Amino acid sequence: QATKIFSTMTIPATIPDPRKATLRSIVNPKDQKDIIDKGIVIFYPGPHSYTGEDVVELQVHGSIAVIRDILASLQKLDGFLPAEPGDFTKRAWFNSKFRDLTQLEAVADLLRAETAAQRRQAQSQLSGQLGDLYHRWSTELHTCLAHLEALVDFGDDEHLSADIPQKVTPRVRAIFEEIKTHLGDRHRGEILRNGVTVCLAGRPNAGKSSLLNSLSQKDVSIVSPEAGTTRDIVEVRLDLAGFPLILQDTAGVRQGPELGFVEREGISRALSNFKNANIRLILFDLSEFDGSRLHPDDESLLAVVNESPDNCLIVLNKADLKAGNIDAPALSRLFGNLPRVTISAKSGDGVPNLLNNLETLVKNFFEGSSLEEPMMTRQRHRQGLLDCQDALRRYFDSENMVELAAEELRLASRCIQRITGRVDVEQILDIVFRDFCIGK
Questions:
Q1: pLDDT at residue 210 is higher than 70
Q2: Closest C-alpha among 440, 373, 405 to residue 89
Q3: 247-293 pLDDT, tens digit each
Q4: Could you tell me the CA-to-CA distances from 335 to 13, 94, 297, 306 in Å, in that order?
């Protein structure tokens, strides 16, 4: 019914040539003397459209009044309803415009992409690389399954070789190993899609909030000489060299009987976020450093760092307040081989060097995975492959019992097909379309 727009809401009322931009007056369907706007209309007849159905595109001025009145006029037409999130893409799916669900999910990721790396990952998935990988695994498992079923159904009559299971198992083992490698990606695809968490930790007044404001170039966190002003997690999204970062300012970590319930809870959350973050920046007040030892609260936090030193960066802040020369040998004794930078969050000195070091940490985090290679971007992909692995393990345990082994291969293939939408698609669509914006 899309073409009804031309006969009721445009002057002239004729249907324009397909895929040709045409200038029209857009009017109130109840009063065609009421011209809402003049804009471009484009007609995309199905099946050669995004949805596979007839689509009409209106390019109009973006004022609140114009948009409101056009939407109100459209809703006066019989059969016209506002699109729900993902409605257009859902219609495209049912009209076979996508090969599998991973491509469909890539559309949502492309709409949400904030950085170049996210865009590249979404485009790679949209091109079918991830779906093709899963389809290859599923096809190979089906082939192995067919060989086993042939032995079960026709082995005696057709004198099929009894060593078919021994020939099938190496092929199944190869797929198992590929899936194992794919699952061992440290969740990098999901992290890239959602953002790399970078936690700022340190004692009260070490300069975490000042650094967050400096990096984000806006006042998002309260800066005060009063200790303990940050109680909850303050997050800011940042694009660093094309990678999406989620910077987290946390409560100052300290100990003492004077701490109230709220500050204790804030410190507990800070330590939890610190341990779970992808990258950790630990701030120390350089102006208080006397060259011999750290403050006890700093030493406690450093002990946590040394338990898991990967992806950590020591940030020596307040260099502008440090009297005299910095004792480099003493710092080396205290921090060992942990990478460190010296900055002044207040003046900005050293912050570019900090960003360079942070960029290196982010790139090292994704080292070993090309953004052009297919990576899992959702937990449902991971769960499907974990279930597939479980079925393949059961296959290896029962490969001498051909009927049972064949059933495990069938289950393994079905797990992969659930990811791509070959089976149980109706149960999965609601999960998939939750990520879409209104309309698309």
A1: yes
A2: 440
A3: 999 988 888 888 888 888 888 999 999 999 999 999 999 888 876 77
A4: 76, 59, 15, 9
Q: Cα–Cα–Cα angle for 276, 280, 283, nearest 5°?
A: 130
- The CA radius of gyration of the chain, in Å to the nearest whole number, is 30
DSSP 95-135: TT-SSSHHHHHHHHHHHH--SHHHHHHHHHHHTTHHHHHHH
Q: Where are the beta strands (DSSP E) in 278-359?
A: 279-285, 312-317, 340-342
Tokens of 376: 């899992």
What Å distances lie between residue 35 and 7, 16, 25, 39, 80, CA to CA?
14, 19, 7, 11, 20
How many Cα atoms within 13 Å fall on the side-chain side of residue 69? 19
Between 152 and 146, whose confidence is greater? 146
The string of pLDDT tens digits covering residues 190-200 is 999 999 999 99
Q: Both tokens of residue 301?
A: 């936090």
pTM, to two decimals: 0.84
Residue reference for tokens 């219609």: 91
